[in-house]
Amino acid sequence: MDTPLIDLDTVAPVRVRTSTWRRLERNWSVRIGAAVLALLAIVAVSAPWLGTIDPILIDPVNRDLLPGTTAEVMTLTGESFKHTFWLGSDSFGRDIYSRVLYGARISLLVGITVAILSLAIGLVIGLSAGYVRVLDSVVMRIMDGLMAIPGILLAIALVAMWGASLLTVIVAITIPDIPRVVRLTRSLVLSIREEPYVEAARALGTPLVKLLYRHVLPNTVAPLIVQGTYICASAILVEAILSFLGVGLPTDVPTWGNIMAEGRLQFQQYPHNVLFPGIFLTLTVLAVNMLGDGLRDTLDPRFSKRGDRP
Amino acid sequence: MSKPVLTVGALTVRLPAGADRVHAVENVSLRLNAGEVLCLVGESGSGKSIIAQTIMGLLPKNLRASGGHILLGDEDLLQVSDERLRALRGEKMAMIFQEPMTALNPVMRCGAQIDELLAQHTSMSSVQRRGRVLEMLAHVRLPDPQRMYRAYPHQLSGGQRQRIMIAMALILKPTLLIADEPTTALDVTTQAEILALMRDLQRENGTAVLFITHDFGVVAEIADRVSVLRLGELVESGSAEDVLRNPRHPYTQMLLAAVPPLTPKKAPVADDAPDVMRTRRLRKVLSSGGWFTTRRHVIASDDVEVHVKRGETLGVVGESGSGKSTLARMLAQLIEPSAGDIEVDGQVVTRLRGAQAHAFRRKVQIVFQDPYRSLNPRRTVGAAIAEGPINFGASRREAWRRAEGLMKLVRLSSDALHRYPHEFSGGQRQRICIARALAVEPEILIADEAVSALDVSVQAQILELLDDIQQRLRLTIVFITHDLRVAAQICNRVVVMQHGRVVEQGPVAQVYQSPREAYTRALIDAAPGRSFLFGVAK
To answer: Which residues pair with B50 in a beta bridge?
Structure first.
């Protein structure tokens, strides 16, 4: 080729932009929220090795012990050993500490699974509704109908219909959350669809599916992650409420909700039944919400998507 | 000599750490006398808006003036209290901004917004205030002041909103008016009216005006004195005549050389060259409203007939709302016309579907206006350029090889293929977009205001690059623009559009020098600084 008329342009970075990871690391809400959740996850996973006993072991001899009491525990096989009831025991003699730690597993599992499921399903529906005009009105009216039903009542109805198990509880909590994700995704897609780079991809003959996957989807991820954390917090709460009302998981599976439900009647005399699971629940939901706030402040597309403007 | 209204002395504003330079503005001194218009010119990033904001006390929190003084009359604006600044704003100094839509409160009626200003600074009764506001609205030449008083900002046109802003700024008769690119977002005919209005009002009240702009045509129209800024430093200052005709600093000379003259450069292509694209009675009707709201129809394109010969550059000029962008998108097959046909190489391509439509996509490609939004921020530059060829069956390796060649063609180094768009400047991004469009080897390239968002020096580079590419690749270009100078620089023939219709078309020299239609004549007359020859001493 002939020599160019102007020299080859050097490509120096015009402005050094702090990488997303670094900004995430520096945000205090993200740090605290993530730290608390990580701690909780570790505790939940290593529950068997943290001084717990079988959470469903009933021993009426040790009922209603105050927090910190040490007593003899007799297992079903007849062995007995000394055990300190750090958070006391309930009216059946079950160790609250063990139940709370094992309950953490359920809460985290439900929260994360519901968040992931609702994001995945809502994303697919929202992408199609946002991009394909014909589908838009139909899908959104269905979602409006679904949103009109109060989430908890819907969850109760679904669990009553399908019977109480971990799977049905998860699905029952996911369904009311899907419309919110669909709405968010659809509004994101509507604005991204008008961006020049999407038009350029169309002009270059990019097929629809690749367009959605390569150009639209990656730019919706950040706000959706933020929404996901809020869904997680809400799911943990809803599961606790369902268990509290007695329409969630059966009582032989300890969850924070049903620990509180069973301790409700004795709250005046033995508040530790309700107090400790309540504290854990509060801290977990708070941590998840803090994480969500921190992520939103860092990942908000207004600040992270556009390149440097002069 | 009377005391100057505004004296800026050695003003320095620091930028926060991590920015591309230490100071936004360094050691800048200006002087503005009563009744004078000083134009502050510079490219983007030169710091001109920062100076305006510092004077008004509107700097964002992370920027501070670290040195110098700003004397308005006798007071140093950098030393006075916030309360005093608030009192001074509106009474002694006022500012009008570029985007009148965002500068006006959308939920308050226009009259009420001006009234608020009077209520705060004067002790007039409400009847007196209303009278004064209506008087001012008539003064800025708004038709039907009563209706304008009751109107909301979104009900008015851009030019009308800007007049409201001017009314608000001048109603308290300040001694200093700062105008930050007030006409950049307006059509060229509206711009001419607003500039004339500002000049008349300024002369009437003896206001000193600090006019910030990047457009030398506007400077030629309105300036008494000119100061040129570059990367926060003042490089040249003087009377308008001196600076514009006899620039001394090499930067100013470079800028003025980059301004395209209004005299057309190119002759039309040979008459017997074949038509590579033509449209027949192309029509596009946009309708809004759903099942329950009244349907509204806007005719974006009305019976448009244009034709483009192979190897030529056709300009499509018009103001906003003229339908030129709609035409561009119809030609690029991004939207479907409501009626009419488009022919490419003799074949009708309008309502093709599926594989046939896909095959024809290659022939026509488009480059958009905003370089900051034309590239997917999450994909590398190489992936963006390679996408087209891969869609049409090339293997990844072939596509990347072609991408490397194209980067060299647009004069960027090919190891930048692995970088992300945010690492490039506006002009470089636009070159990448051109490379992306060329990757599928189109016959026709549509440039939709492709240089409008760029600084004048970068614009000159891109125009020159397009010319070069056209010659090498025998490309046909359809160049959409609102800027008559750019069209004069690069086009062989030009089409003038208004309200969705073609008003006039022909060789660019003929249309510019002897326009047949009144609208075309009005458009050419309104081009700012048209009689000015930059850089040429009288």
So the answer is: none
